Amino acid sequence: MFPFDQQQPLVTLSQDPEHKTKLNQHLSVLTEQAKAKILEQQRKYRERYDRYRTNPIYKINDIILVKTLNKRNKFDIRYEGPFKITQQLGKKTFIVQHIKKHTLVRQVTIDVIIPLYERKRMN
Question: Which parts of the chain fold into alpha helices (H)?
Fold first, then answer.
């Protein structure tokens, strides 16, 4: 005779009839807590970001430099230009044209451009 020979033919497990409802409520609470935490972290991130951000305003004919995006080493140039703003497509999107190479036209966003100011000559 082996131990498994004496096994009862039918095994029943007791289950709480409210188990599914309780589990859904618990998951719902966890989801709401996660959403609240994400929104709080986003607010803090935005606050830190905005603290040091300037909001430059560019106009047509402003002279600017465009940040070089594909730098391979620290000696590569950081900015290209000078460019002149020829058109504003949106709140933060511009069409710029190179000052000397007039065929070089680009669409750029406000985060990759910096203003270029002309020095006043002292006579």
Answer: 19-51
